[in-house]
């Protein structure tokens, strides 16, 4: 299965990171860095539009292959920011998404909105790495972590100033995450990471389980104002959109088209 292959690759990457990783050095570096920008706050307030937008910088994916051949990550991020995206998600996985840590660091220098490091985090060293390369938040995916692992990585991320988007796709993962009682920001992924099948109704099916005080972001397969209206209606606080924007010749216009109908309160 693809997700297992991705995780196997991550284990190899973590093993090579571990060869040079020094906790003391990372902590020293982080101590000298500016505070993180508030990712959770930015996406959940959504500039009072009623729906926050995380726009994703995504060159390729396992399900779709190459999505945007003419790929200029910094230019895309600047365009997202200028068009009103609240946060930017940056794929850093190289092997399956053609992403890079270097893209995230370059984007950090270029924009002033919070950045999510989008990768498959399975080890505490990747959390420190995310902070050092310039992320404001990390993604923790319930499908690839045991509850105790997720709890530990969540605590570490928070301890170094990162926000955490905890991703679930089904009832069992949601129950596990809610039982831990740590997540304040839950991403419901409309894509099944095992089969790649997408269904926006996944958000509607699971959102009712989430207690008040915890915000939900709907992720994947979102491409129209009708999708956003529907997800607003079911109670999502924000959306994460990658492929739709990446396929547009005029990315800024595509963002404006989706955000345009949202009313400021
Ligand atoms: O996008 C994939 O094919 C994929 C495959 C396996 C694991 C994760 C995958 N995507 C990560 C994401 O969650 C999406 O990049 C993100 O939600 C944006 O989705 P979309 O708007 O559909 O590009």
TrEMBL record:
<keyword id="KW-0028">Amino-acid biosynthesis</keyword>
<keyword id="KW-0057">Aromatic amino acid biosynthesis</keyword>
<dbReference type="InterPro" id="IPR013798">
    <property type="entry name" value="Indole-3-glycerol_P_synth_dom"/>
</dbReference>
<keyword id="KW-0822">Tryptophan biosynthesis</keyword>
<keyword id="KW-0456">Lyase</keyword>
<dbReference type="GO" id="GO:0004425">
    <property type="term" value="F:indole-3-glycerol-phosphate synthase activity"/>
</dbReference>
<comment type="pathway">
    <text>Amino-acid biosynthesis; L-tryptophan biosynthesis; L-tryptophan from chorismate: step 4/5.</text>
</comment>
<keyword id="KW-0210">Decarboxylase</keyword>
<dbReference type="Pfam" id="PF00218">
    <property type="entry name" value="IGPS"/>
</dbReference>
<feature type="domain" description="Indole-3-glycerol phosphate synthase">
    <location>
        <begin position="3"/>
        <end position="258"/>
    </location>
</feature>
<dbReference type="InterPro" id="IPR011060">
    <property type="entry name" value="RibuloseP-bd_barrel"/>
</dbReference>
<dbReference type="InterPro" id="IPR013785">
    <property type="entry name" value="Aldolase_TIM"/>
</dbReference>
<protein>
    <recommendedName>
        <fullName>Indole-3-glycerol phosphate synthase</fullName>
        <ecNumber>4.1.1.48</ecNumber>
    </recommendedName>
</protein>
<dbReference type="InterPro" id="IPR045186">
    <property type="entry name" value="Indole-3-glycerol_P_synth"/>
</dbReference>
<comment type="similarity">
    <text>Belongs to the TrpC family.</text>
</comment>
<dbReference type="InterPro" id="IPR001468">
    <property type="entry name" value="Indole-3-GlycerolPSynthase_CS"/>
</dbReference>
């Amino acid at each position: 299965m693809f997700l297992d292959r991705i995780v196997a690759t991550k284990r190899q990457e973590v093993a090579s990171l571990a060869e040079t990783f020094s906790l003391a050095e990372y902590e020293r570096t982080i101590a000298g860095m500016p505070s993180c920008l508030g990712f959770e706050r930015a996406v959940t307030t959504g500039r009072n539009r009623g729906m926050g937008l995380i726009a994703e910088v995504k060159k390729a994916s396992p399900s779709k292959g190459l999505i945007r051949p003419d790929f200029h990550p910094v230019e895309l991020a600047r365009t997202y920011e200028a068009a009103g995206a609240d946060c930017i998600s940056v794929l850093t996985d190289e092997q399956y998404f053609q992403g890079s840590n270097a893209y995230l660091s370059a984007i950090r220098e270029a924009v002033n909105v919070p950045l999510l490091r989008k990768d498959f985090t399975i080890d505490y060293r990747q959390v420190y790495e995310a902070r050092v390369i310039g992320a404001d938040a990390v993604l923790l995916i319930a499908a690839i972590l045991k509850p105790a692992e997720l709890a530990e990585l969540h605590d570490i991320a928070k301890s170094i100033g990162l926000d955490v988007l905890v991703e679930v796709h089904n009832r069992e993962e949601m129950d596990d995450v809610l039982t831990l009682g740590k997540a304040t920001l839950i991403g419901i992924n409309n894509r099944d990471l095992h089969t790649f099948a997408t269904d926006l109704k996944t958000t509607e099916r699971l959102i009712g389980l989430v207690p008040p005080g915890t915000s939900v972001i709907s992720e994947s397969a979102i491409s129209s104002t009708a999708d956003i209206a529907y997800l607003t209606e079911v109670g999502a606080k924000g959306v994460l959109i990658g492929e739709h924007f990446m396929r547009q010749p005029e990315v800024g216009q595509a963002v404006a088209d989706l955000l345009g109908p949202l009313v400021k309160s």
